[in-house]
């Protein structure tokens, strides 16, 4: 009887550990690809050197800046009801800023307008 109790306890601990590992995998930020408008020369910027990267986790978008961009206007639109979430960031190289949007299941569109007129655009879905 004592062996069965020990075995049952060991199995419960193993299952609870596995469940917590699975839950942590859900908390991995998901990258939201951003594309930019053409430069003045009419050439699209390469995705590998984008000055802004974006990640989504639990309703929050985090933007990381790899160049000094000055003031960046951010607008996120939830497609189904056109609700707008917006913010202004002062982007410095190596800096980051966040905007809480929503955890509601839907499609979202991101528009980032930089001080020099460059526009970054991205889309993501929450399921």
Write a brief structural summary.
With 127 residues, the protein is an alpha+beta fold. The chain has 1 helix and 9 strands.
Structure write-up:
It is a single chain. The protein is 20% helix and 45% strand. With 127 residues, the chain is of the alpha+beta class. Mean pLDDT is 82; it is low at 4-10, 18-24 and 43-48. It is globular and about 35 Å long.
For the CA atoms, what is the radius of gyration? 21 Å
The proportion of residues forming helix, as a percent range, comes to 10-25%
The global form is globular
Number of DSSP helical runs: 1
User: How many strands?
Assistant: 9
SSE map:
Elements: H1 2-26, E1 30-32, E2 35-36, E3 52-57, E4 60-65, E5 70-78, E6 83-91, E7 96-100, E8 106-114, E9 119-126
Antiparallel strand pairs: 1-3, 2-9, 3-4, 4-7, 5-6, 5-8, 8-9
Keywords, please?
20% helix; 127 residues; single chain
